[in-house]
Design goal:
The protein has a six-stranded mixed β-sheet. A four-stranded mixed β-sheet has the order 1-2-3-4. The relative contact order is 0.10. It has three domains: about 90 residues, no CATH class; about 90 residues, no CATH class; about 200 residues, no CATH class. The chain is built from 16 helices and ten strands. It is an alpha+beta fold. Keywords: Coiled coil.
Length: about 425
């Protein structure tokens, strides 16, 4: 039966036409054996019109019963209740389909059609990606990895020696600087050109580099402000919030990689920025009209060298102010409505998914014929229950990391 199903499936899979394959059956109306056999496989099992590849367990039991009854009963062994058999197969197929849908977390629960449409739109917006890479590779505080993009959209990176790495590390980086393309269509058309996307070795290196050492990502500028009477210090912190898979005794039976993947489906990485001083968050108007403005080479100054003198004179408690501002930033992100809403949504999504999984696994365990199969299913049910609990813990207490920190000193424009 399995071979017959596979042969029909190959016709459907490799045929030029889109319609299902036509199955021609040669019958012998005068033969009880042939008639009963065809009625069994067509009306009972349905292999001539639908795929039965996923219900092999039930078909194996049907075959075993048929073999056992064939000699003592003869052709009557083939004359079973085909309507009842078809109902059993349909019920089995329904349970398996539900289980497969639940197993496919990304498509069934975590990536609906509207999210996929948003991904397609985001994928097409390459200008923001191009600008981000330019800021990362050129200008104050950049990595000094020169990038040149040709007219046909191929970007080439050079000067790995200018990043400040050890000689061996610089050589390793040099091997990653293969031609890239921000437009996916260019990468498809140009041989040897990879899309600048997650998964590319150079992109992975950049991510690891940016997340390696917080001290290497600290910066400070001075910005003149008209009408300001006294210098003020504001600290900009960027936090990365992610699902925490955790490693403890309660997750020994849980696959950590699978847990992390399922957790990220519900609680996707979240980035939150804060502007704070020692007393709390910056006013919204100040943030939007002054602090969030891009660096202006004609007006702003990078805080270094001799610039430190007047700044430290005006702000003698610089170190203490930075510490208290960082403390307020951590308080802001932990109490952020954006974080609370993300956790609440992720918790609800995780509970719904886990409930569906557990219900299917429990029903499946009850229907298995042998004690060994039921024992294995109960073990799988227990692992899924542990996974569900670990998911909720990882969502409720996510990891929060400060990934960048920068100081902005607002200075009276009159004496800048």
């Amino acid at each position: 039966m399995n071979r017959l199903d596979q042969r029909i499936g190959r016709l459907d899979r490799y045929a030029v036409r889109a319609e299902p394959a036509e199955v021609v059956v040669f019958t012998e109306p005068a033969s009880e054996w042939v008639t009963a056999h065809i009625r069994l496989i067509h009306d009972g099992i349905g292999v001539l019109s639908t795929s039965v590849s996923t219900v092999q367990r039930l078909l194996s039991s049907v075959l075993a019963a048929l073999v056992e009854q064939l000699l003592p009963r003869g052709v009557q062994a083939l004359q079973i209740n085909v309507e009842e058999l078809r109902r059993e197969l349909e019920n089995e197929q329904e349970g398996i389909d539900l289980l497969e849908e639940i197993e496919s977390v990304e498509s069934a629960t975590g990536f609906p059609d509207d999210s996929f449409a948003e991904l397609i739109d985001y994928e097409a917006q390459t200008e923001s990606l191009r600008n981000a890479v330019k800021r990362l590779t050129f200008g104050v505080g950049s990595l000094d990895v020169s990038m040149k993009e040709t007219r046909d959209g191929v970007a080439r990176f050079t000067n790995a020696q200018g990043v400040g790495l050890a000689l061996d590390d610089a050589r390793d980086l040099e091997r990653l600087l293969t031609p890239k393309a921000f437009e996916r269509a260019v990468a498809v058309e140009e041989p040897g050109v990879l899309p600048f996307r997650i998964g590319d070795p150079f992109v992975t290196w950049l991510q690891d580099y940016l997340l390696a050492d917080e001290r290497g990502r600290a910066s400070a500028i001075v910005r003149p402000v008209q009408g300001l009477t006294t210098p003020t210090l504001w600290l900009r912190c960027e936090f990365l919030i992610e699902f925490d898979p955790g490693i403890d005794d309660s997750t020994d039976r849980v696959d950590q990689r699978r847990l992390a993947r399922r957790g990220e489906v519900h609680l996707q990485p979240l980035r939150i920025e804060t502007w704070t001083d020692g007393f709390g968050a910056a006013p919204k108007e100040t943030t939007e009209s002054i602090l969030n403005l891009p660096f202006d080479f004609k007006r702003d100054e990078v805080l270094r060298g001799r610039c430190w003198g007047p700044v430290l004179e005006a702000l003698p408690t610089w170190s203490a102010s930075c510490r208290t501002s960082v403390g307020m930033a951590w308080q802001e992100v932990r109490e952020s409505p954006q974080l609370s809403a993300a956790i609440e949504t992720a918790m609800a999504s995780s509970e719904r998914e886990s409930s569906r999984r557990l219900a299917i696994l429990e029903a499946r365990a009850l229907r298995l014929p042998s004690e060994a199969e039921r024992t294995s299913a109960r073990l799988e049910f227990g692992i899924e229950r542990d996974t569900a609990e670990a998911l909720l813990r990882g969502i409720a207490t996510p990891t929060i990391r400060m990934v960048t920190c920068g100081a902005c000193v607002l200075w009276p424009e009159e004496n800048f």
